[in-house]
Amino acid sequence: MKYTFIIIGFFITQFSIAQAIEHSVIDQKIKAFFDDFHQKDSTKLKTYFDKTATLQSVIKTKEGSTRMVDESISKFINSIGSIPDSIHFEERIFKATITLEKGLAHAFVPYQFYVNNKLSHCGVNSFIFALVEDQWLISNIIDTRTRDECDNLSH
Fold first, then answer.
1. Per-residue confidence of the chain (155 residues) as pLDDT tens digits?
2. Strands 104-115 and 66-71: what pairing?
């Protein structure tokens, strides 16, 4: 009987280690994505996305209503690559909350966005990753954008 508990404990430990490794892979993938994003490297940015990936934003209009905006991944990548060198931008990300289950990962990542060192807006990024042919690829990014409450983000 005690060997049964030892074997069960071994498998639980192995599962926990595997989960921690995958969690770290997702966390590093997000950090690398933002490094390439800040470098305006459109070639590298393409490698993070599944070919069917989507990009969405939840925004508040000037009138105060909330709406959803869709953007194509290729348009997003091309727009990042075409930003002039005279414009510096930085999306400062904070600790990601990552959950994993059976080839699917969700990362909830608060951020503050700066243009030429001035706070532009803040919000949260929600990344959905799918394990496709042994590679974690972004399936969807949905973000929020606001100018309100940018000092209250979880660091």
1. 565 545 554 444 444 445 566 778 999 999 999 999 999 999 999 999 999 999 999 988 888 889 999 999 999 999 999 999 999 999 999 999 999 999 999 999 999 999 999 999 999 999 999 999 999 999 999 999 988 778 766 55
2. unpaired
**Mind giving me the DSSP string for 10-31?**
HHHHHHHHHHHHHHHHHHHHHH
Structurally, the chain folds into a number of domains equal to 1
**pTM summary value:** 0.83
Residue whose C-alpha is closest to residue 118's, from 140, 143, 89: 89
**At 51, which CATH number?**
3.10.450.50
- Determine if residue 134 is left, alpha or beta; phi over 0 gives left, psi from -120 to 50 gives alpha, anything else beta: left
Which domain covers residue 6, as residue numbers? Answer: 2-152
